[in-house]
Amino acid sequence: MADYRAPLKDMQFAIRELAGLDRLRALPGLEDATDDLAEAILEQASALATGVIAPTNAVGDEQGTRVENGEVVVPAAFADAYRQYVDGGWAGVTAPPEHGGQGLPFLLGVAVEEMWCAANLAWSLCPLLTEGAVRAIEAHASPELKDRYLPKMVAGEWTGTMNLTEPQAGSDLAAIRTTAEPEGDHYRISGQKIYITWGDHGMTPNVIHLVLARLPGAPEGVRGISLFLVPKFLLDADGSPGERNGVRPVSVEHKLGIHGSPTCVMAFERAVGWLVGQPNAGLAAMFTMMNHARLGVGLEGVAIAERAYQQARAYARDRVQGTVPGHPGRAAIIKHADVRRMLFTMKAYIEAMRANAYVTAAGLDLAQRHPDAAERARHQARVDLMTPVVKGWSTEMGQVLTSLGVQVHGGMGYVEETGAAQHFRDARITTIYEGTTGIQANDLVGRKILRDRGAALAALVTDLRATEAELAPHAELATIRTAHADGCAAVEAAARWLAAHAGDSPATPGAASYHMLMLLGIVTGGWQLARSAVVAVRRLAEGATDADFYRAKILTAAFYAEQVIPQATAHLRALEAGADTLSALPDEQF
Amino acid sequence: MADYRAPLKDMQFAIRELAGLDRLRALPGLEDATDDLAEAILEQASALATGVIAPTNAVGDEQGTRVENGEVVVPAAFADAYRQYVDGGWAGVTAPPEHGGQGLPFLLGVAVEEMWCAANLAWSLCPLLTEGAVRAIEAHASPELKDRYLPKMVAGEWTGTMNLTEPQAGSDLAAIRTTAEPEGDHYRISGQKIYITWGDHGMTPNVIHLVLARLPGAPEGVRGISLFLVPKFLLDADGSPGERNGVRPVSVEHKLGIHGSPTCVMAFERAVGWLVGQPNAGLAAMFTMMNHARLGVGLEGVAIAERAYQQARAYARDRVQGTVPGHPGRAAIIKHADVRRMLFTMKAYIEAMRANAYVTAAGLDLAQRHPDAAERARHQARVDLMTPVVKGWSTEMGQVLTSLGVQVHGGMGYVEETGAAQHFRDARITTIYEGTTGIQANDLVGRKILRDRGAALAALVTDLRATEAELAPHAELATIRTAHADGCAAVEAAARWLAAHAGDSPATPGAASYHMLMLLGIVTGGWQLARSAVVAVRRLAEGATDADFYRAKILTAAFYAEQVIPQATAHLRALEAGADTLSALPDEQF
Q: Looking at the 3D structure of chain B, how many domains does it have?
């Protein structure tokens, strides 16, 4: 059902006109990232996603995963899809050329990743985790470790995992108990980890685990955690997988969705591992993985919503039911105003969320490659600010939109064979893993807004207001401008409120945080659509051939302005209520 | 996990202080409905729900249903729970005494029903459908049919179903093709029906189907549909089930949730049936069932949210994770501000939704039993207005709240064994069956607001404003009053807008309808909480013993005022945008 030709045009628009691939071409190492290259890559990825990966989605959901003879068995169709993905060279798209990667911009990486996620979310987690592990190893590991592991991982020949959570610890990494005993040049890792995504499988000859553990005598809390590389199979002298290491999958979870993705309980029993980075600095190293992964999970919200939208739209065009005022005879349900409202809501949010994610990814390219240090810092601050927003808002909305996808189908949506329900089930994990929405919101308010006294947020507001000025000359964009100005004012008011009231009580930042995250998501998403409308007006004035597409861009921004932006003020009001009422209710009255 | 002692206090509060059981006691036939009786009934129902029905919920979800030897097999534990329900006399709680019912007010009926739904939604659909069938037969069938079928159905000895939908028709009853051929005193029914809830099972010796079909030469469309009673087993001369009739379950659907409830494809092959009501007047008769069922499904939204809340609250009190500013040591997650926000959101919505449903049920009692015809009409108009709001809003929010229930659990919520995910899956049907939210919204705007030129809505606004006046003398309720006044203003503005603009285009009422429904849900829910706060202030001034409960009532109204009511204005803005943008996007640009 997934057909990634449909959104290609919007993806290309976001890459070219909003995220600005041309800006990236000016960066060292990205000179070859032309529009033509981008188009070719997207076309090829779309063919693989549509023709090879998407057909494994429903079957993977049905078959699920299991542990057999000490190894995890995943749906059979997954291995072939993975093989084609590796053979096509997709694993190393954004990885550095010195380790065998193609060194393409993150901006193109996220566009390609969106297609894998939409095609099969459960499957796509395997490449996503591997990419994160590559990034952590590249940033923190010794040259020897890099040489031994990175080329295979960059190529996708071996996959990677991220072993954080323990049963007693949940999101609370301070409570980690897994131990690492020094032994010669390596360590012996012992402990149990839970919720390890793609913690084991037989699709590749090795699986490389990154594991948080404590050295003997390490300080309590998060400052006593170190990061270790623990391969499933120890490498022979020639670098090929040999003896099995002391790590094995104990069981897989029976989950609401992403059935094809093995979520493992992993047992480490004196497993041999190597330190990655400095002792007791594991958390920082892990955050290298997590920040990347958070942007990736935000993208999953976009992708799964897009998949649900494609299916709901196809159904709404086909399904004839009832009559519609103003239409002769019985009508396809896309003609029913409320069904149309649902579909347009999906379309508008998806385009807003996609643009937000792509623009943030381009910011990552600029933050890493810009020759000017001040520019790098400026872009990094924006990426840091927007990462929890992209993660939290896109995944929260991903759930709302996949639920609308079910609703468009009516009773058929509740029947599993239709497939709409799978997207709804799969999407439900995205606000939980890689840090719940609450954790994203705390990160946003605590680390990204209060810590720099609102500097990064103020810079964002300046950019938001600049777009308001760009809208001003265009009378046909008045609705969009008014709504965007309301959104800007809400962000400014929220920023002022936080600056003035964050210290009111210990609970205040936490109480305000969810609303701040949603407010920023709504307004920045609307900002990207407003920018789209300005571009569209310009292209139409230039006599663009695809006038219908550009007119639709303006209508989509208007729809979002009318239907979505008003919620920004609702979040502002809730935020301004502070924590008093929340804190006043005694625990026992819940 | 479900423990229906917890919400008993809130249920009794809603019955006594908001819905006004004392008003009902003044009605003929309800003189015995004392507070003590209500309390006793709720206690007994709570024991059955908690001790007998709730334990069948997870196992029913796992086992599901299947067709075997021409009969549907449901989870084994269901039959015993059903037997205890029948033996306890619960089936006929609100049914008329002349057919063996207890003739209690609907108000108590919904409170009891809420417990069955929360205990096991899949199971509870069997009694719910039976009750609806009883109501339709009572209102429309001949005395002979009533005598033969009602006593057994009222007692719960036989169950009832509602056969509307056909594969080609969906919600579009005009397209129904099932036929009814006259033959002596009866008819021969032939056709296929889908999505028939509890269409077959072996828990009782008979199943009584109400079936929509067409007589020979009947007019096209909904004016050519008649209603028939078709028993699974034809009755012998002594009234006991004898020969198998020509109706059988073909298959059951594989659904996202409510796995324990068989959703059947039913085949009618020259099945013997009897006409219920007048020829070609089947739709009106079916609406007798549907309106009752819609209120019941609205209640399901409350019930499943309550169940999810109980579970999330228990988890949040137990689960210790991380540290919280202002709390020493590691803290239970209920202390985390954002978790607390989610729990308080659940609590506030549930109490608002419950009160809305109960007040509407009391209105039904007044509409049916008030000695004064004008009063009956006045109450009926309110019930008619509020039924789609209770159905649509409570089920939409039921999904949001069960999703919050998952979120509070973090990763554990995504693991099926925890049980939080089942509520989320089960809840997803409630915005679809008995008319989707879009259908409720169209009913609200088209039949309930525009048709009487806003008269019923204006009467509601008068009542809303009266509560604002009651809030005014209490300085400590200022936040609640301000928010409630904002909500009232939003409803008034929406009413004015609809009156002025509904004719703007054929799509306008449909485009506005969802937002009108949500707006009315939010504001009427807040109205009930505002009324609660006024009562609580009075009780506190009187020196009520349970001061903590009443103080919590005021805080809950304040939380809702701060966090929820602001969304009313967002819905108003979206509504006022009309249908222009929605209609302007060409189908092919979706």
A: 3
- What DSSP assignment string belongs to B326-346? TS-SEEEGGGSHHHHHHHHHH
**Closest CB from A334, A511, A566 relative to B590:** A334
Minimum-distance CB partner of A552 among B194, B511, B589: B589
Predicted model pTM: 0.97
What span, in angstroms and rounded, lies between the C-alpha atoms of A45 and A112?
Answer: 6
Active-site position among A17, A351, A396, A434: A434
3 state SS for B173-212: HHHCCCEEEEECCEEEEEEEEEEEECCCCCCCCCEEEEEE
Instruction: Dump pLDDT digits (tens) for A491-550.
Output: 999 999 999 999 999 999 999 999 999 999 999 999 999 999 999 999 999 999 999 999
Residue B314 at interface with chain A, using a CB cutoff of 8 Å: no
A12 and A146 part of one domain = yes
Handedness of CA B514, B516, B518, B520 (dihedral sign): negative
**A71 is an active site residue:** no
Q: What secondary structure does DSSP assign to A42-76, as a single string?
A: HHHHHHHIIIIIGGGHHHHHHH--EEETTEEE--H
Q: How do strand A207-213 and strand A159-163 relate by DSSP bridges? A: parallel
User: Are residues B118 and B245 part of one domain?
Assistant: no
If asked whether residues B240 and B115 sit together in one domain, one would say: no
Q: Pairing relation of β-strands B179-183 and B186-197?
A: antiparallel
- Cross-chain Cβ contact A585/B555 below 8 Å: yes
Count of A-B CB contacts under 8 Å: 270
- Out of B335, B343, B585, the one facing A552 most closely (by C-beta) is B585
| Contact between B505 and A559 using a beta-carbon 8 Å cutoff | no
Q: Which two tokens stand for residue A198?
A: 């793609």
Write the pLDDT tens digit of every residue in B100-115. 999 999 999 999 999 9
CA distance A379 to B216: 74
Choosing from B133, B155, B177, the residue where a domain stops is B155
Identify all chain A residues contacting B194, using CB atoms and an 8 Å cutoff.
Answer: 411
Q: Where residue A173 sits, what CATH number does that domain have? A: 2.40.110.20
The pairing of beta strand B159-163 with beta strand A320-323: unpaired
Residues of chain B in contact with residue A173, where contact means CB-CB under 8 angstroms, are none
Return the structure tokens found at B150: 């009602």
More confident residue, A151 or B283: A151
- Is the ipTM here above 0.95? yes
The domain containing residue A479 runs over which residues?
452-584
| Chain A CB contacts of B326 below 8 Å | 505-507
Confidence of residue A7 (pLDDT cuts 50, 70, 90): very high
Among candidates A341, A411, A421 on the partner chain, residue whose Cβ is nearest the Cβ of B514:
A341
Residues 6+ away with beta carbon under 8 Å from A2: A49, A50, A54, A57, A118, A119, A307, A310
Same domain, B128 and B229: no
| Contact at CB, B428 and A399, closer than 8 angstroms | no
Apex CA B263: angle with CA B179 and CA B96, to 5°?
75
Pair B149, B175 in one domain: no
CB pair distance less than 8 Å for A510 and B431: no
Is the Cβ of A257 closer than 8 Å to some Cβ of chain B?
Answer: yes
CA distances from B556 to A524, B186, B549, B560, B564 (A): 32, 57, 10, 6, 11
* pLDDT of res. A2: 60
Q: A41 and A78 share a domain?
A: yes
**What per-residue confidence (pLDDT) applies to B1?**
47
Q: What CA dihedral angle connects B506, B510, B512 and B516, to 10 degrees?
A: 140
Q: Which residue of B has its CA nearest to A440?
A: B338
pLDDT digits (tens, 9 = 90+) for A463-498: 999 999 999 999 999 999 999 999 999 999 999 999
User: Same domain for A149 and A89?
Assistant: yes
Token pair belonging to A179: 């131990």
Tens of pLDDT, residue by residue over B474-512, are 999 999 999 999 999 999 999 999 999 999 999 999 999
